[in-house]
Amino acid sequence: MRLSQAHALVLGQLVRLVAPAAAVGALLLTLRRLELAAAPVWAGALIAVPAFHVGRAWWLYRRHARTAARLGATLPPCWEGRLPGGVDILQLMDYAYRKGFLSDYFYEKFEELGATYNFYVLWTWDYCTQDAAIIKTILATDFNNWVKGEHFDSFVHSVLGTGVFNADGELWKFHRSMTRPFFARERITDFETFDRHAEEAIHKMKDRLREGFAVDFADLIGRFTLDSATEFLFGACVHSLHGGVLPYPHGAPAHLRDGRPRSPADAFAEAFRAAQHVISHRMRLVWLWPWNELFGSRTADPMRTVDSYLEPIIERALQVSGEAKERGVVSGGEEVGEGETLLDHLAKFTSDPTILHDEILNIMIAGRDTAAGTLTFVVYFLSQHPEMLHRLRQEILDVAGPTGRPTYDDVKKMKYLRAVLNETLRLYPAVPWNMRYAVKDTVLPNSDPMGKSWFVPAGASVSYSVHCMHRRKDYWGPDAEEFDPDRFLDERLHKYLTPNPFIFLPFNAGPRICLGQQFAYNEMSFFLIKLLQTFESISFDRESFEPEALPPAEWAKFPGRKGKEKFWPRAHLTLYSEGGMWVKMREAPVVGQA
């Protein structure tokens, strides 16, 4: 019988937990038999476990301090918990996730301790940073010394498997080499797929708005990006727009809200989201998460739903690939054939259904969630800044006209459009936090020119916050918390970003930079153009949110975005808006009928 992932991890932890107690118990038993000790065996064994971990923590700290001194470095300042094992820090992190604003507590600790610090949770040393120089070292200049690692894999393996976002070393290189040719410029500048699904999405918006209800833009844009991603990547659209019914807002008649049919595409999207929430919960539990899933993996049910959609598609792709190879019409290699989907392309490299499953699922998470989340926040910001909406819409009308289908050249001409997207990605990057594990003892640069480098021991994790880094006033200026797309166009661009490009990392950096970055920009740009060709104003509709999805009233007294936002930003693997993003829009006059 094969052990589940959780059972295998728990068994390993039990061995490490029991070993000190067993050793002390055996020693006491021997000493009692020799009449050299009188203490009960059970008492010694019981005391041995906490004593071992406390002693180990002290020994590791001393060892790290000595190694740091030998390397001319020092340990970063420490966020010290009040309870044994830093359990109170773990509680704060969990509370911040469930009830707080994005990066609560971590942001305050950066203000208190500096741009890099460590913390001790469950007898494990971890590091946090918002220092661009350190992030550059990890992602680029010392890339080979930093990996996703086994601990990260334990959190996400049941969902991401061995896909590109979870893989290291040669496996990562294999995935990367398979996927890279598919995102060549000629493939990501064909906007036909975007156009078809954007038209359907906007048609659904018009219908719902004409009923007198607000639209959950987060739900709608998630359907658009899911349909676009599944068709572009697999050649098999889930038709979440065509087959689904948009949700009704809080306060709508019960028969509309409760009677809304659920399509297979809805089930797929909800399962996809549920699996990501499980991953987020595992990360907050650190190495304790397997104990929470002893009676079954919490990703099993949602992944069954996801797999029921993916597996037939993979089987068909492998069948087609096999038949083509038998006829001698597939040469393999990196060249992408005309009309080939990503799945078709990958099937030329491998016939392993697990590798194909993991890779396309990884790419789909990036292809759907990044664009959907960013466009959700763009619409929110435009609802709060009508003067910016008017300026953006005018640029769109000047370049593409009121009804024309935008081209790649049109998108390149729209400088303010790109600035709006970048400013949104700055304040709300799709992946707000990420982490890497050190392969060997290393030192990281200290942003204080008078300070020593920071020592990080082998096996330690460094979590880096793009979300916090993007709001640093020393990186972006005193107005860093404000939404101002012009910072990507005026003198501030050359003052801050141009000399230090690693302060802006919405798509990662270094060898693992997002392959689909330009695809995402094209998709987001295309949809925004179509949206603002159709609608001339956007208003945030607070009354349409479920009350529990809105930010607590007491947040208004806080500085920065926490005190400003009218929605609740949250994250699992990627950022999203709690309870959706309910807005109303006014249609622009039809050309010739104004």
TrEMBL record:
Signal peptide: none annotated. It comes from the Eukaryota. Heme binds at C514. The keyword Iron applies. Pfam families: p450. Coiled coil: none annotated. GO terms for molecular function: heme binding; iron ion binding; monooxygenase activity; oxidoreductase activity, acting on paired donors, with incorporation or reduction of molecular oxygen. Its cofactor is heme. Keywords: Heme, Iron, Membrane, Metal-binding, Monooxygenase, Oxidoreductase, Transmembrane, Transmembrane helix. SUPFAM superfamilies: Cytochrome P450. InterPro entries: Cyt_P450, Cyt_P450_CS, Cyt_P450_E_CYP52_fungi, Cyt_P450_E_grp-I, Cyt_P450_sf. The chain crosses the membrane at residues 39-61. Belongs to the cytochrome P450 family. This is Cytochrome P450 monooxygenase pc-3. It comes from Phanerochaete carnosa (strain HHB-10118-sp).
